[in-house]
Design goal:
This protein has 254 residues and is of the alpha/beta class. It has one domain: Collagenase (Catalytic Domain), CATH 3.40.390. Strands 3-2-4-6-5-1-9 form a 7-stranded mixed β-sheet, with helices on one face. The chain has a two-stranded parallel ribbon with strand order 7-8. A hairpin with a 5-residue loop joins strand 5 and strand 6. Helix 2 packs across helix 3.
């Protein structure tokens, strides 16, 4: 009996040690997945909008989509290669999300010469050519399959499009839990340069992808920041809607 017990113990120990290389392998480059989000122009919508849904609509629509991937740290540092475009609009975009949760803080680290989306240990927003000619912006992210944690995020703004920035103030600093109160999510205006894309409007949506909130495509979601289409002159995405705030609170708390 003792001999059988001793043999069993040796087998168990061997199994433990032989499993260690497999555990380490889950952290190598083969474990890292690259995905992307694409924001298309509203007037060139690539996907149909759905109907129906909850009674609350507009900025009070409670919709959001989250796929379980998140940052391992509460502070995410980012850089900007503005290439002559408005850098302040980018910083204001991240500040909008910072205001909605104490569990995540996007920290501006300064300018960068990065001009491509690549794993280089820097989270960067830059203007450049996009692989989809009709896209407004594309956000790329890398995450670990094993841990479901974000490794890096880059966003490219389509340099071939006209850009402008309408500084409407804010962001409106939100306090406490998300609440379905219309005045909480009011925009000061929804008009900017009618012939350009507003930097903050587009990037606030893209910054939502940095939290790993997904695009929304139903017509009832059209007033939310995470609605998947953008348009000329639009600045309604500068501020969050109820569903957007519910989304970030789901991931990082109020």
């Amino acid at each position: 009996m003792k001999r059988i017990w001793l043999v069993s113990l040796i087998v168990i120990i061997a199994l433990i040690f032989t499993s260690i290389p497999a555990m380490a392998a889950s952290q190598n480059s083969d474990d890292i997945i690259k995905l992307k989000f694409i924001q298309y122009p509203k007037h060139e919508a690539a996907k149909p909008a759905g109907g129906g849904g909850p009674a609350l609509t507009g900025t009070l629509c409670p919709d959001y989509k989250y796929q379980g991937i998140h940052w391992a740290t509460s502070e995410v540092r980012y850089y900007v290669n503005a290439s002559g475009e408005n850098e302040q609009g980018i910083k204001d975009s991240f500040a909008t999300w910072n205001a909605a949760s104490t569990g995540i803080n996007f920290k501006y680290e300064g300018s960068s010469g990065v001009q491509e989306a690549a794993r280089d240990n820097k989270n960067v927003v830059y203007w450049g050519p996009v692989e989809y000619s009709n896209a407004i912006a594309v956000t790329y992210f890398w995450y670990s399959r094993a841990t479901k944690q974000i490794v890096e995020v880059d966003t490219v703004m389509n340099v071939s499009l006209p850009w402008a920035y309408e500084d409407v103030g804010g962001p409106e600093y939100l306090s406490g839990d998300a609440r379905p109160i219309a005045s909480r999510y009011e925009d000061p205006t929804d008009e900017s340069d009618p012939d350009s894309y507003d930097v903050r409007n587009i990037m606030t949506h893209e910054a939502g992808h940095w939290i790993l909130l997904n695009d929304l495509y139903n017509s009832r979601d059209s007033k939310l920041t995470m609605y998947g289409y953008g348009d000329y002159g639009e600045i309604s995405k500068d501020t969050l809607g109820y569903g957007d705030e519910l989304g970030i609170e789901r991931v990082y708390g109020p």
